[in-house]
Design the sequence.
């Protein structure tokens, strides 16, 4: 009997969190887990904060994750990682892109973008794996591949063979983008 594990995928609308959650959900389904993937919650149009939950185990009853329950937080943007930090378990892992996208209060000048967020998260005791996913995605051929770079980095924390990730990618990524996404996954995995 395996305990239910919880993954939160957080970011800003338009960054590809839906594809990332589909990829992870497919990988886990193929591995024989019961999987619940929530819909995208939040302002899913470009620019708003979004969160998707992926829960898996022998039997999963609800797709939602409460504060202090996330085994993993996968973040497309640095401030979003910090925003959702209260949801991380004590021994949980954050995998985050270091990219900074100014939220509306910063754009309007009402606030400043916080500094040293990776260090501040680490000071809370969180395990933070922060990488420049945008540069790696551009290297793969598209800035839109940040989501797959993050999945490649996440693969370090999952005991799943590379072939399983590749099979899941083939199932959810449109054929015309598959090679570029496979390259993005490899770049994230090997950073």
Sequence:
């Amino acid at each position: 009997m395996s305990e239910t594990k919880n993954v939160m995928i957080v970011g800003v609308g338009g960054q590809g969190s839906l594809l990332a959650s589909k990829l992870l959900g497919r990988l886990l389904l193929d591995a024989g887990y019961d999987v619940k993937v929530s819909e995208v919650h939040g302002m899913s149009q470009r620019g708003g904060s979004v969160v998707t939950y992926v829960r898996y185990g022998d039997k999963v009853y609800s797709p939602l994750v409460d504060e202090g329950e996330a085994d993993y937080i996968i973040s497309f943007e640095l401030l979003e990682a910090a925003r959702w930090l209260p949801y991380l378990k004590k021994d949980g892992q954050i995998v985050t892109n270091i990219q900074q996208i100014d939220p509306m209060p910063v754009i309007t000048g009402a606030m400043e973008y916080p500094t040293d967020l990776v260090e501040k998260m680490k000071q809370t005791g969180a395990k933070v794996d922060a990488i420049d996913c945008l540069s790696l995605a551009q290297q793969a051929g598209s800035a839109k591949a940040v989501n797959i770079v993050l999945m490649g980095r996440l693969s370090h924390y999952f005991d799943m063979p590379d072939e399983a990730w590749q099979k899941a990618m083939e199932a959810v990524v449109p054929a015309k983008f598959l090679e570029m996404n496979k390259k993005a996954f490899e770049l994230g995995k090997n950073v």
Remarks:
- The first strand starts at residue 5 and ends at 12.
- Helices lie at 17-30, 78-83, 104-107, 117-123, 133-140, 146-154, 162-172, 178-189.
- The chain has one domain: 5-189.
- The longest helix spans residues 17-30.
